[in-house]
Write a structure and sequence with these properties.
This protein has four helices and two strands, in the order H-H-E-H-E-H. The chain is mainly alpha-helical. Strand 1, helix 3 and strand 2 form a beta-alpha-beta unit.
């Protein structure tokens, strides 16, 4: 039982190491992917408060989209504590 457990743990360690290292030549691809991620802008979600609606964000959304950000302002009906909490 102990030998079997050691073999399993060793196999997992080897698989994890292989996954981190990857196939030969993948370092350049990983570096390119990292550069693309660092250049990618985040998606911005704007949520209105009480006694307002999502249209209050229109001016802000226009400016953010002009600057290249994906922007979302979902409807948040705010009908009451029981329904809003659900």
């Amino acid at each position: 039982m102990i030998a079997r457990r050691r073999a399993l743990v060793s196999g997992v360690a080897v698989a994890a190491t292989a996954a981190m290292v990857g196939p030969a030549g993948s370092t350049a691809a990983a570096a390119d992917h990292t550069k693309a991620q660092s250049k990618a802008k985040p998606t911005i979600v704007l949520v209105h408060g009480g006694f307002a609606d999502a249209s209050g964000w229109n001016g802000v959304i226009e400016r953010l989209q002009h600057d290249g950000y994906k922007t979302i302002a979902p409807a948040n009906p705010l009908r009451g504590v029981p329904t809003d909490a659900a």
